[in-house]
Amino acid sequence: MTSTDTITLTGLRARGFHGALAAERQLGQEFVVDATLFLDTAPAAAGDDLAKTADYGELAVRLTKVVEGEPVALIETLAQRLADVCLAISPLVEAAQVSVHKPAAPVPVPFGDVVVTITRRRS
Predict the structure, then answer these.
(1) Which residue, among 118, 115, 41, has the nearest Cα to 84 in the 3D structure?
(2) pLDDT category, 3, cuts 50, 70, 90?
(3) Which one from 47, 53, 102, 121 is the annotated catalytic residue?
(4) Is 55 exposed, middle or buried (0-12, 13-18, 19+ CB in 10 A)?
(5) Is 65 a catalytic residue?
(6) What is the set of domains in the chain, with CATH numbers?
């Protein structure tokens, strides 16, 4: 069973060059990431011990590097890479939910946002 405790990082912004169109790969755009980690935070709280939880500062740095890193065609692929980072940040993380927002997606009509959200569990 997945823990009901969560650590959530929202609104992480980074520039990436992801997209299926050549212009997206050349010009780049801002991506916004939300990530929720599912883990038992009681041991960390009981001992006031960072080693018994997930370091969200380190998570933010690692997620940013992925967004700024190797381009992919689909934000679904980017979301998977980000989820992999979330699960790898600490063996205490049981599952992760990641949303990738692409507010400047090349959509030919007015829109607010495009978001892909995935949930992955430790196997």
Answers:
(1) 118
(2) confident
(3) 102
(4) middle
(5) no
(6) 6-121 (3.30.1130.10)
Q: Give the HSE-up count for residue 30: Cα atoms under 13 Å, Cβ half-sphere.
A: 6
- Whole-angstrom Cα distance, residue 71 to residue 41? 34
Round to whole Å and give the CA distance between 37 and 35.
Answer: 7
The owner of tokens 């890479």 is 81
For all residues of the chain together, what is the average pLDDT?
Answer: 96
Contacts of residue 22, defined as CB under 8 A and 6 or more positions apart, other chains included, come to: none
Strand 6-16 and strand 115-121: the pairing is: unpaired
Q: How many CA atoms lie within 13 A of 39 on its CB side?
A: 24
pLDDT tens profile 59-76: 999 999 999 999 999 999
Query: Which pTM was predicted?
Result: 0.95
